[in-house]
Amino acid sequence: MGKSAEIRFYRSNEEPYGAFSNLYRRALSLDGQTFPTAEHAYQVAKARRPEVRNWILAAPSPALLAMAAHGLYQWDIVPDWSRIKFDRMRAVLRAKFTQHADLRELLLSTGNARLVEAGTVENAVNRLWGEVNGKGKNMLGVLLMELREQLARETKRSAGGRRDQRLRIAA
After folding, report:
1. 118-124 own/partner pairs: CB under 8 Å, 24+ apart
2. Contact partners, residue 53, CB within 8 Å, separation at least 6
3. How many domains does the chain have?
4. In this structure, are residues 107 and 83 in contact, taking their beta carbons and an 8 Å threshold?
5. Which parts of 44-114 fold into alpha helices (H)?
6. pTM of the predicted structure, to 2 decimals
7. Which of 31, 62, 80, 125 could be cross-linked to 23 through a Cys-Cys bond (beta carbons 3.0 to 4.6 Å apart)?
8. Considering only CA atoms, which of 89, 84, 54 is closest in space to residue 69?
9. What is the pLDDT of residues 60-86, one digit of tens each?
């Protein structure tokens, strides 16, 4: 894909790039716990108290889980959440895309395309994590592109290591 290419995603059921949505149903393990979606793994870290985390995790769908977490009172949110939330999302995305080879390959297959979470509802959350009508920080897309670059480097390094090993064996 050329540099000008752009891949837009939003709904988890869109083929093939709905898998980039945090609501996409694919379990991942992080911090010794297994979560049904990336959204679960991200939002649970926001809650300060175990009973609030359990309440969030009990939501009947990833979308309702996100709504519940967005509605938390300030005193129920970990104190430094605004500072650590992007690092948490990085960890969640790394877990999701390294624990599932097919998702890793899908992400790597996007080449240099700009990845954009294309929200449809105009609100602060959609403008932070994605873009609405072309406006927003698109942090989910930015973090996915960052991860794609890291995975591509790691793939190149490990392929080089295997090649070196084959050369030594052949010699």
Report:
1. 118/8, 118/9, 118/10, 119/10, 120/10
2. 44, 47
3. 1
4. no
5. 50-57, 62-70, 81-99, 101-108
6. 0.89
7. 62
8. 54
9. 999 999 999 999 999 999 999 999 999
- 81-123 per-position pLDDT tens digit: 999 999 999 999 999 999 999 999 999 999 999 999 999 999 9
Residue 88 lies inside a defined structural domain of this protein: yes
Q: Say if CB 57 and CB 40 are below 8 A apart.
A: yes
Residues 120/77, Cβ–Cβ less than 8 Å: no
Domain-located, residue 143: yes
**Rounded Cα distance, 1 and 94, in Å:** 23
Domain that holds residue 110: 6-170
Residue 166: pLDDT above 70? Answer: no
User: CATH number for the domain including 37?
Assistant: 1.10.357.40
Of 17, 3, 11, 47, residue with least CA distance to 119: 11
Q: What is the residue-averaged pLDDT of the chain? A: 92
Separation of alpha carbons 107 and 152, rounded Å = 10
* Domain assignment of residue 1, yes or no: no
